[in-house]
Amino acid sequence: MRGIPFIILLILLALAGCNVNTNTFDEQTIIQAKETAESYLKNNFESIHTITFSEDYSNPMGGLMIRGIVNENEKANFSIDIDIDSSQNKFYVGSIEKGKEFPERKDECKEKSCDY
Asked: pTM for this one?
């Protein structure tokens, strides 16, 4: 009988740990994040002619993730984690994940990201 309260406590802790942070972002924040992502992509990668954004902005950790494809190529996809400095109202690219056929980084931006 003493083990039952302990098991219930463990189950409750596990369920609380599974609570996903579901931040929602207003339209202006999403627009600014997309502008930051677009500027970053065009300034740091070769031959980007078009950028198509997805409508999924979720990030498992509760942050803002901008996803999409470039040059109308589904294999040239990307996910960009956007960091927001709310004190200065500035948006930064935290990290980027690129698909198999994503364009190469510009030579001058290989050692350090170019300004965006």
From this structure: 0.75
